[in-house]
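Human:
Focus on the backbone:
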Amino acid sequence: MNTDKLILRTRFVERACHWFMVICFFAVALSGLSWFFPSLNGLNAVFGTPQLARILHPFFGVLVFLLLAFMFTRFVKYNLLEPQDRLWFRNIRQVLAGKHEPALQVGKYNAGQKLLFWGIMALISVLLVSGVLIWRPWFAHLFPIPVIRIGLLVHALAGISLILLIIGHAYLAFWVKGSIRGMLTGYVSRRWARTHHDRWFRQIDSKADAGKGGE
């Protein structure tokens, strides 16, 4: 692939972690939905049998948490809210309409992506804690029945909320042309970067110019 006119946005280890996490989350989400909605009971076949689903669901859930924790360490510095993010919020209608004027001073991730990032990290933490409370036969016996009932309710609500956030994330990735390719190859076009993340593009461009000047 000719990368002369492209910008590296996501490194291989981050992409590999992301897609592996997607596969694991897909399995966990489907098995979880099969218990939450009786009409979807057949979804627990994602792990082979209902019995295996009961056993493997929490282990895969912990794996999803660990993968997201790794991604947190890689991306948190880009997802801290900044004063420039107010401009994105003030122009949310133009953003949703696909308009890119005026320039919104967007860094590597926009304000909406940052909120999504923190929402996903918060919900996966809630799922981990509540999941431990209800995890039989390992931990559930350590807690009284009322606590387990609350844990079941919180786990279900957090799970549904996280699934909805992930669906929203996937929809927006397809909606913004070039985003999926960027997460598959790691590269985005200079035009894409300039259009959707103008401040980040200028930062990358200035570093490239500085590097050329030092040659």
Q: What stands out?
A: Strands lie at 6-8, 187-189. The longest strand covers residues 6-8. The mean pLDDT is 90. The radius of gyration is 20 Å.
